[in-house]
Amino acid sequence: MHINRYIDHTILKPTTLIADVEKLCAEARQYAFAAVCIPPNFVKTAKSLLQESTVKTATVIGFPFGYSAVEAKIAETVLAMVDGADELDVVANISAIKNGDWLYIANEINHLMPVIKSKHKTIKVIIESGVLTNDEIIKCCDIYGAAGIDYLKTSTGYAEKGATVEAVQLFRRYLPGQAQIKASGGIRDYTFAKQLIEAGATRLGCSASVAIVQGAPATEGY
């Protein structure tokens, strides 16, 4: 399976130090993870540390609650791309979703998509599936699938419930085939990571990435 190739090696705590980012990037290079995901203020640092590697630089937009104004998210996105971000993990306005304001949700993503795609970057939309009903998740799949996003992502890691196999399966059932799935939040061991991939996830957001890789069967390698 080469599980390392699925992993976005992540550190997003508010007390993140430059030393933490340096360690994260060194581990990402060592294990050939898909990407690192770091706070926006460390994008330039990570990009520099990952030069001449295959590891992408990802950052978060509107993190962690998603209720920034659309204009603020656009400004964050532009600055992140200027700093060198390859991938943008954008938190949807969870409050708008819970209030059933689907016009707002559609407007938000339709303003963000041209900005991101004009620079040929990857967009992952985080909907915090652990606090949503199945009907709300399905509606998100419809709207974001139609918008042409690259990934729908389960969680920020800041809600009371993170990734579940059931949420990933639901995403896969209702997203169009070209839309991929990123599972994140509470993924701490190889067994759970493998279950999420088998359910349909093609990326995993993890802070316990090294432990997950080291827990893989020797025959899988990395």
From TrEMBL:
Residue numbers annotated as active site: 89 (proton donor/acceptor), 153 (schiff-base intermediate with acetaldehyde), 182 (proton donor/acceptor)
Pathway: Carbohydrate degradation; 2-deoxy-D-ribose 1-phosphate degradation; D-glyceraldehyde 3-phosphate and acetaldehyde from 2-deoxy-alpha-D-ribose 1-phosphate: step 2/2
One example of a Gene Ontology biological process annotation: deoxyribonucleotide catabolic process
Pfam families according to UniProt: DeoC
Record key words, sorted: Cytoplasm, Lyase, Schiff base
Database matches in CDD domains: DeoC
GO molecular function, one term: deoxyribose-phosphate aldolase activity
GO cellular component: cytoplasm
Record's subcellular location: Cytoplasm
Cited SMART domains: DeoC
EC annotation from Swiss-Prot or TrEMBL: 4.1.2.4
Reactions catalysed according to its record: 2-deoxy-D-ribose 5-phosphate = D-glyceraldehyde 3-phosphate + acetaldehyde
Function: Catalyzes a reversible aldol reaction between acetaldehyde and D-glyceraldehyde 3-phosphate to generate 2-deoxy-D-ribose 5-phosphate.
Family: Belongs to the DeoC/FbaB aldolase family. DeoC type 1 subfamily.
Name of the protein: Deoxyribose-phosphate aldolase
Species assigned in the record: Hydrobacter penzbergensis
